[in-house]
TrEMBL record:
It comes from the Bacteria. The lineage of its organism: Bacteria, Pseudomonadati, Pseudomonadota, Betaproteobacteria, Burkholderiales. It holds the Pfam family ABC_tran. InterPro entries: AAA+_ATPase, ABC_transporter-like_ATP-bd, ABC_transporter_ATP-bind, P-loop_NTPase. Belongs to the ABC transporter superfamily. Keywords: ATP-binding, Cell membrane, Membrane, Nucleotide-binding, Transport. One of its GO terms (molecular function) is ATP binding. This is ABC transporter ATP-binding protein. The keyword Lyase does not apply. Residues 11-245 form the ABC transporter domain. SUPFAM superfamilies: P-loop containing nucleoside triphosphate hydrolases (SSF52540). Coiled coil: none annotated.
């Protein structure tokens, strides 16, 4: 019988390059990501930060098995990834709820598609809605909920299948700062209880440091690649609002920002040229 590879990373992106047909000029090719290697160990919380449009979502889509890279390989717990990454749950940046389904039915959608008995799906759905603070709101439609409630619903929808790897693409970027911090703390509590591997994409450096074990900095595009990696040696449990004022946080912020700053300026300049 094949031995489970306990040493293997939960997710390994190996030497990934992604080249697209350019959106600006279909005659040209655009290399969004080049020669990128990135690993997340079991139980590790890794954030990827980088300037806008640099290729963060592209990397996450590769890890989810939604996008086949032009070059390189993906391994999941030591096994080559083929097709969709079944060990991963994916929380997207935008709104991903089905508007015609009530909150509970959105939360249980994945279980229903997986053929789980409806009664069991219903029970697990109600339990998860309670866990994310939405007990009593099972019958609300997405348009009857606030942005924060919809994000909580999406979180329950992602976690209910108990994925070993959680992929999050700027999940809270649309929220006001207070709601965002509440949700960040909730995610950390849930993560502390289960210790799944998390790959978290954000352009917010404070959020990345507050949440993570490790922060990877990406260069501006084209041919985005990691240019720095920082261990976040701040003890847990952390409160994302309080942690920002401790000296080690400020130190790490200064160090990472020194690497990120020029890339953000480059990314910003590129966006301006595109708009002009
Ligand atoms: N399917 C595609 N076809 C052509 N170009 C693409 C495609 N997907 C992504 N790109 C380009 O690759 C680059 C990286 O895109 P990506 O969405 O990964 O960046 P990002 O860092 O997640 O952006 P943001 O911070 O705005 O969310 C962008 O220039 C984008 O236009």
């Amino acid at each position: 019988m094949a031995q489970a590879n306990t040493e293997a990373p939960a997710l390994a992106l190996k030497d990934i390059t992604c080249t697209f047909i350019s959106r600006d000029d279909p005659g040209q090719r655009y290399t969004a990501v080049a020669d990128t290697t990135l690993e997340v160990k079991p139980g590790e919380f890794v954030s990827v930060v980088g300037p806008t449009g640099c290729g963060k979502s592209t990397l996450l889509n590769v890890g989810a098995g939604l996008l086949t890279p032009s070059k390189g390989a993906v391994e999941v717990f030591g096994q080559p990834l083929q097709g969709i990454n079944q060990r991963a749950g994916y929380m997207f940046q935008g709104e991903a709820l089905l508007p015609w389904r009530k909150a509970l039915d959105n939360v249980t959608a994945g279980l229903q598609f997986a053929g789980v008995d409806p009664k069991e799906a219903d029970e697990r759905g109600r339990e998860w809605m309670r866990r994310v603070g939405l007990g009593g709101f099972e019958d609300r439609y997405p348009h009857q909920m606030s942005g924060g409630m919809r994000k909580r619903t999406m979180l329950a929808q992602t976690l209910i299948r108990d994925p070993d790897i959680i992929l999050m693409d700027e999940p809270f970027s649309a929220l006001d700062i207070q709601t965002r911090q509440l949700m960040e703390n909730e995610v950390l509590d849930l993560w502390m209880a289960k210790r799944k591997a998390v790959l978290f994409i954000t352009h917010d450096l404070d959020e990345a440091i507050a949440m993570s074990d490790r922060v990877v900095v990406l260069s501006a595009g084209p041919a985005t690649h990691p240019i720095g990696e920082f261990l976040i040696d701040i003890p847990r449990p952390r409160d994302v609002a309080e942690v920002r004022s401790i000296p080690r946080f400020v130190e790490l912020h200064t160090d990472i920002w020194a690497v990120l700053r020029d890339e953000v300026l480059k990314g910003y300049a590129q966006q301006k040229t595109k708009v002009a």
